[in-house]
Amino acid sequence: MSIATPTQTAAGSRIRYVALAGNPNSGKTTLFNALTGLRHRVGNYPGVTVERREGRLAGNDITVLDLPGTYSLNARSPDEEIARDALLGRHPPVPELVIVVVDASNLERNLYLVTQVMDLGLPVVLCLNMTDQAERVGLQIDIQTLERELGIPVIPTVASRGKGLDDLRMLLQGAPPSLPVRRWRLPEAMKAEVVELAHLLVEERLCAPESAFFTALALLSDATGLSVIQNHPRARAAVDRAWQRLEAADVDPQSAPVEARYEWIKGICDRATRQGEIPITWSDRVDRIATHKVWGFVLFFALMALIFQAIFTWAQAPMSWIETAQTWLGEQAGALLPQGDLRSLVVDGVIAGVGGVIVFLPQILCLFFFIGLLEDSGYMARAAFVMDRLMSKVGLHGKSFIPLLSSFACAIPGIMATRTIENRRDRMATILVAPLMSCSARLPIYTLLIAGFIPATRLWGGISLPAAVMVSLYLLGLTAALLMALLFKRTLFRGEAPLFLMELPPYKLPAMRTVLLQTWERGSHFLRRAGTIILAISILLWFAMKYPGSPSQSDAARLQQSVAGRAGRLLEPVIRPFGMDWKVGIGILGSFAAREVFVTTMAIVYNVEDGDEERQSVSVRQQMREEIDPATRKPRFTPAAAAALMVFYVLAMQCVSTMAVVRRETGSWKWPLFQWAYMFVLAWTGATAVFHLGRLLGLG
Amino acid sequence: MGECSLSKLAPGQSGRVRRIDGQGSARQRLQELGLIRGTLVRFVRAAPLGDPIEVRVRGYNLSLRRQEADAVIVEREKQG
């Protein structure tokens, strides 16, 4: 029977394309990095945002594909679907060999995936990784027995220390091993059904003969896979008939294959392993603290405070270097180019625009470095474990916490960090609300408005009013984010509650190489992908603020008659309900490039002489205070209006870089546009309400 | 003694899986992670706020929400 027991071998041919599969936490990525070094590139699978990581094996022409970690080929997330589809050859090229990376200290569950991969009709090699960890927990594994029982080559490794990699490389030099033979036993009744359906699938050309058994079994055991044969009534009917017969035979098609695989695995483990005394590992001891009722939270918040400290203070030095470099570059370009529009385009448009985004790179790298440490050490899963209850109250996952927290620094790394959330609905809800957290680019605007319009009096208890306002702005953003998350989970992303099945892997020392590589990868990805869009938008905005007009005019006059100036006037009726005029309209438009640009744009609008940022902020503040509303002959910027503008900036998504990243992470412009729109509505409503409330209270 | 859901075990207490109620992906994934009929599973601890819980099964630690653990019906093992 060619379907049930594949016999052909690929002997003689050379291996050129190898896929790495494995459970999460099996050390697969560490092995990938060790095998390929820096010779790899990261792309995307078509239509999804799952990363496709490929690399060259040192010293020859073998390409290695790092598949997303998965517990099973019955996929439950986009990542897992990619892993399955790549192995089934739906994302060509088809691998000529699959290396399944297995955590040796967690053999039984890891072997489950191995038994599935062995059904695919591809040569399989088992990489028994983290053998040092297995020894530490008192587990002895007899490699020869394991090899014989499984019927595939087994290579023991410790990828983090480079042990066993030469054996693996050697094996890849030769011809692929012969195809694995299925040795686990389905109940006869079910096996007959699977074989029959497999024949039908091949006959109908719905799948290749090599993977027909796997596909037939997946269809029978997992109703969610049926969409594949929706338009094939014959196959659909065959599945239904098979289910009826199985029910009559009292076979549960979902449980039977899982039980059969585990039964086989149990037998293998009994013969190939010996469990010595299980020592109490330091991992257990750490966990007693890390998940303790009190200390668990203390540790969690201490770590978060450390990360925040790093993002806000340690990243400051490199950020100011970038700013200095940017100023220097601007001066050099200014000296080289003649006075005029070209110089302004290069200096104010390109260099200032792109520099305004690159300046966030140190924060982004910093954050990803810490996230990498937390993930690789195993703490990230504990953080999710500790925080899940709180986050689930607004329908989010424990893993949503860190992206949201990161967004206080900048929404861009926050949104990129949502990749750790497997469930799409949870991830989307987190992405949609992340920009509501007050990022560091809003701070200059808050400072400007608070210093200008909030009297520096003290409330009862001696708390200064400006400080209280600042804190309430942050709280407003946070509250809005949580409420919107709840709303989105109840409306847009409703559905079956996502699974919170998460492994708590033993703690280990993070592999620096993996962490640094990952940090670098994400940082450079951000620069390349977001950078190009931001460059384009910076140039567009520059033109909008300069044309039509001529360089002979004053900057203020030119801005007023430019496209942006006219758009500011057009915007006036929209923002008048919360007390703003066209000048602020221009400021709001200009701050699309980056929020802190608001201060600079207002400086141009008010024709403030150039100076350093602080002086600029002070003079803009004065100008705003002296501004008289021609209709009422009273100051335009009352405390009520200033409060309204602050609320607007808390809630509005005035950031084109974030929109570019959301587009990248969600794969379409639909989501960033929706996000911009809902946040604008929220901001407009909030600002208008605050403005009128303030007037009622006599503040306007 | 007797049957109860996994979420009802006390910290440190073990049980043997009898069946998993419900259907669909949750049930399948629980089984694929090793919680099948006859598997020994130990309740390690609950998270600081009571939910989710951590269990030990087949030599590794798994966390799941109480709602998911409710579907896993176990036979309590004798202490000791």
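The interface with chain A takes residues 23-34, 36-37, 45, 47-52, 54, 58-65, 67-68 of chain B (CB under 8 Å).
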